[in-house]
UniProtKB/TrEMBL annotation, chain A:
The lineage of its organism: Bacteria, Pseudomonadati, Pseudomonadota, Alphaproteobacteria, Hyphomicrobiales. It is found in: Cell membrane. This is Branched-chain amino acid ABC transporter permease. It holds the Pfam family BPD_transp_2. One of its GO terms (molecular function) is branched-chain amino acid transmembrane transporter activity. It comes from the Bacteria.
TrEMBL record, chain B:
It is found in: Cell membrane. Keywords: Amino-acid transport, Cell membrane, Membrane, Transmembrane, Transmembrane helix, Transport. This is Branched-chain amino acid ABC transporter permease. It comes from Borborobacter arsenicus. One of its GO terms (cellular component) is plasma membrane. One of its GO terms (molecular function) is transmembrane transporter activity. Signal peptide: none annotated.
From TrEMBL, chain C:
The keyword Thylakoid does not apply. This is ABC transporter ATP-binding protein. Residues 6-237 form the ABC transporter domain. SUPFAM superfamilies: P-loop containing nucleoside triphosphate hydrolases. One of its GO terms (molecular function) is ATP binding. GO terms for cellular component: plasma membrane. Keywords: ATP-binding, Nucleotide-binding, Transport. PROSITE patterns: ABC_TRANSPORTER_2. InterPro entries: AAA+_ATPase, ABC_AA/LPS_Transport, ABC_transporter-like_ATP-bd, BCA_ABC_TP_C, P-loop_NTPase. The keyword Transmembrane helix does not apply.
Length: 316, 292, 241
């Protein structure tokens, strides 16, 4: 392992330990409720970026994968009593399957069609769930999760630590993909598919891999959600703000590296958590929408790109 | 009513509904089909057009007249949007699909939220003398609230088709899609032509919006259910084929009403996307398009 | 004479009603230097696309070292040892020059020390000083060199240089030719598609000329230049420009 690898591993370990210890320091459960949502967005942004950032294939349907993960775990728990860990794995499998299906249907053509198809994914999944009585239809499903294990201070603290572990796993996966042959191949695909293919890169397979991994991570972000809210229904599970944030966060942070989505998610989700107390959710969406347009127009490489450019200018 | 009469009524409703879809999709047939700009904000612009008509209707203005008046501000708005788009991307060199899609995605959300803030999120509807009555043709019963908007679709298609075929500026727009350089050599400014085309596309949004608001009440988020439809129509029609847009839109309208009547209305929003995905997997060049 | 490295028989490709290529029969011997000339639209690029797998021919077969590769996807052909440069350089933007070379090294197996191999190839094409530069900051000549470097870093058996010298000065053309010669000396067969006549004629052991998708002449540089049909369709056309 490289020196950077050790530093990263150590940092992740410290973060996980801090997460386990935090409930002993912070007593107000609100921090863990809010922290859970912020970490959930770290996972969503990271998952989205594996396909959207590295390979340049934009997915408007992040909410579809998230919702699929949420419904999978809610259904598996209510119907068969499968514990959260089991349904987390099931959600990943379903997310990966959905990603593969979308990719297989559209990736041979052009990025635009993939993007449009993902827009439809949310609507199709929502329609399907509305029509399946076993999943509660429009009314949704109540999920009475098991009590948290003894070491956790309470349900929010437990859910927080769980999401922290998922986030650490997702970020590590994204980092590994970026630095390995996979990431290099995906960046080659993003730059020029023809040249990548003629350099021996199996472009279609690599894109399908990215679709599957991205879908799995997005679904993993949704899997604990029914246990967090004790309830799942189509409108919130497939919420617009999830799809919007999934794109806005990596774009604001920077899509080229694993750090970008993390920075974007921490910034934007924290702002939103503070803002929801003070402003309406409409203004929240408006704010994210305007910020998104501003970044696309003025700083397409995100905050990391801005900092890097300032750095090179200073050196010149 | 016999089974056959029921079937004929369903098909007739589908044809009318499809004609309305054509009015909604036309703008995208120009921006995406001809200019290759993935304007996913078009359905939101259509709903904005619908609100323009609803707003005017509150003061007693007939929806059709309101739509005609609305063509001008929406044309200008479209030119403005194109200028912003071109300034952002085309000067950077080749437009990055990811970024332009994101831009229009952001734009559509901003439009939706502005409508929510201005009008609230509840449903809004139109009133006009011809909304509410219905006409009978033998066994067919056709509500006027569907008939009048359904005429708007083919009428706009016809007008645009004539425009593209017989006017110089229409020909220039078709040409810009094929070869920008040839136009520059001929002394025409491709950017100006594209701006004009984008303006035209946005102007059709008012007509589409008026048609939608006549069929049934709209809310700021109604556009979202049109995204799948309009892209399915434009892609299936073969990217930029104006008559193809009408034919495919009507086909989709029939398919949706058949499924809604004989299966379950709740499934019809998924029809368009299912058709789009199926078509992309089988025949990416569209039903009426040719391989470039 | 050695056996052909690459062998095409009856290769045809149409786009709709327009037949862009063929039927063509053409062999490339191992270690040969083959020049392909012909007016624009003669089917040269379609031919390369059929060899590299970007396009699949409508009929006919492409064989590489005796094995039928007609149905193989591009990346597999690249791994077998068929490599190309693009007419318009396609650098992997967002990556440094050396990283551009690591892409084929990651995916075309068989090189032990990847970083050393990359450095060696950069040295050979004269881009060592630029190794850490972002590829989008390169000059036209450097982009052409990067294109070549990326094509040869994976130790190909056949290299197709598609107008690798377009837009370069005389001195720069000589530089690129020298790289191609030294590659050929190491046993790589080179197909050169070029409009710069003196370069193809100097470089190629054999020249073939295409016109409207058909192979109309084949022979030494001198024979092809003297061929009256070639003079009419190609040099005649060039004279008008």
């Amino acid at each position: 392992m490289t020196r950077g690898g050790w530093t990263f591993g150590l940092a992740m370990l410290v973060i996980v330990l801090a997460g386990f210890l935090a409930p002993h320091v912070l007593k107000n459960p609100f921090y863990f409720f809010a922290g859970y949502v912020i970490l959930q967005y770290v996972v969503i942004a990271t998952g989205w970026n594996i396909l959207g950032g590295y390979a340049g294939y934009i997915n408007f349907g992040a909410a579809g994968f998230f919702g699929a993960g949420a419904y999978a775990s809610a259904f598996l728990f209510n119907a068969f009593g499968i514990p959260l860990w089991g349904s987390l794995i099931a959600a990943c499998v379903i997310g990966a399957g959905l990603g593969l299906l979308m990719g297989y249907l559209t990736l041979r053509i052009q990025g635009v069609y993939f993007a449009i198809a993902t827009l439809g994914l949310v609507i199709i999944l929502e329609t399907i769930i509305h029509n399946i009585p076993a999943l509660g239809g429009a009314r949704g499903m109540v999920v009475y999760g098991p009590p948290p294990p003894g070491w956790a201070a309470g349900p929010p603290q437990y859910m927080f630590v769980l999401m922290l572990l998922i986030a650490v796993a997702s970020v590590s996966l994204a980092r590994w993909m970026q630095l390995s042959w996979v990431g290099r191949g995906l960046r080659a695909v993003r730059a020029s598919e023809d040249a990548a293919e003629c350099s021996g890169v199996p472009t279609l397979r690599l894109k399908l891999l990215a679709c599957a991994v991205s879908g799995a991570v997005l679904a993993a972000a949704g899997a604990p959600y029914p246990f967090y809210t004790s309830f799942v229904e189509p409108v919130t599970a497939f919420s617009l703000i999830i799809g919007l944030n999934a794109i806005a966060m990596p774009l604001i942070g920077g899509t080229r590296s694993w750090q970008g989505p993390v920075i974007g998610a921490l910034l934007l989700a924290t702002t939103q958590q503070i803002a929801t107390i003070t402003i309406s959710s409409e203004l929240n969406i408006l704010f994210v929408g305007v910020v998104l347009i501003a970044f696309v127009a003025l700083a397409p490489n995100g905050l990391i790109g801005l900092v890097r450019r300032k750095g090179t200018e200073a050196r010149l | 009513m016999t089974q056959f009469d029921l079937f004929m009524n369903v098909v007739a409703t589908g044809v009318l509904l499809g004609s309305v879809y054509a009015a909604v999709a036309l703008g995208l047939a120009i921006t995406f089909g001809i200019l290759h700009i993935p304007n996913i904000a078009h359905p939101a612009l259509v709903i904005m057009g619908g609100y323009f008509v609803v707003h005017a209707n509150r003061f007693g203005v007939d929806p059709l007249i309101a739509a005609l008046v609305g063509l001008v501000p929406f044309y200008l708005l479209g030119m403005l949007l194109y200028s912003f788009y071109a300034n952002t991307f085309e000067r950077r060199g080749r437009a990055d699909v990811l970024q332009s899609l994101t831009l229009f995605f952001g734009l559509s959300l901003v439009i939706e939220i502005i409508l929510v803030l201005a009008y609230g999120s509840e449903l809004k509807s139109l009133t006009a003398p011809y909304i509410g009555s219905s006409l009978r043709f033998g066994p067919l019963t056709i509500p006027s609230r569907l008939l009048v908007p359904a005429i708007l679709g083919p009428a706009t298609v016809g007008a645009l088709w004539l425009y593209f075929r017989y006017t110089n500026s229409g020909t220039a727009i078709r040409a810009v899609a094929h070869d920008e350089r040839a136009l520059s050599i001929a002394g025409l400014d491709p950017a100006a032509i594209k701006r004009q085309a984008f303006g035209l596309a946005t102007a059709t949004a008012v007509i589409g919006g008026a048609a939608l608001a006549m069929i049934g009440p709209i809310d700021p988020f109604s556009g979202r259910f049109q995204i799948g439809r309009v892209f399915a129509i434009v892609v299936l029609a073969g990217m930029g084929s104006i008559p193809g847009t009408l034919v495919v839109a009507i086909g989709l309208g029939i398919a949706e009403t058949l499924i809604a009547s004989y299966l379950n209305p709740a499934w019809s929003p998924g029809v368009a996307f299912a058709m789009l995905l199926g078509a992309l997997a089988l025949r990416p060049q569209g039903l009426f398009g040719t391989v470039r | 004479m050695s056996r052909p490295a690459l062998s095409m028989s009856g290769v045809e490709k149409s786009f709709g009603p327009f037949r862009a290529l063929g039927p063509v029969d053409l062999d490339l011997m191992a270690n040969e230097r083959l020049g392909i000339i012909g007016p624009n639209g003669a089917g040269k690029t379609t031919l390369i696309n059929c060899i590299t797998g970007v396009l699949r021919p409508d009929s006919g077969s492409v064989r590489f070292e005796g094995a039928d590769i007609t149905a193989l996807p591009s990346f597999r052909r690249a791994r077998l040892g068929i490599s190309r440069t693009f007419q318009i350089p396609h650098p992997f933007r967002g990556m440094s020059v050396v990283e551009n070379l690591l892409v084929p090294l990651d995916y075309i197996h068989g090189v032990e020390d990847r970083h050393r191999r990359a450095a060696e190839v950069l040295e050979r094409v004269g881009l060592s000083a630029r190794a850490a530069y972002p590829s989008e900051d390169l000059s036209q000549l450097e982009l052409r060199k990067l294109e070549l470097a990326r094509a040869l870093v994976g130790n190909p058996k056949v290299l197709i240089a598609d107008e690798a010298m377009a837009g370069l000065s005389e001195a720069e053309i000589d530089e690129v030719l020298a790289i191609l010669y030294s590659l050929n000396e190491q046993g790589v067969a080179v197909i050169m598609i070029e409009h710069i006549m003196h370069a193809v004629m100097r470089f190629s052991q054999r020249v073939v000329c295409f016109e409207t998708g058909q192979l109309i002449a084949s022979g030494t540089a001198e024979e092809v230049t003297r061929n009256p049909t070639v003079q009419k369709v190609y040099f005649g056309e060039q004279a008008h420009h």
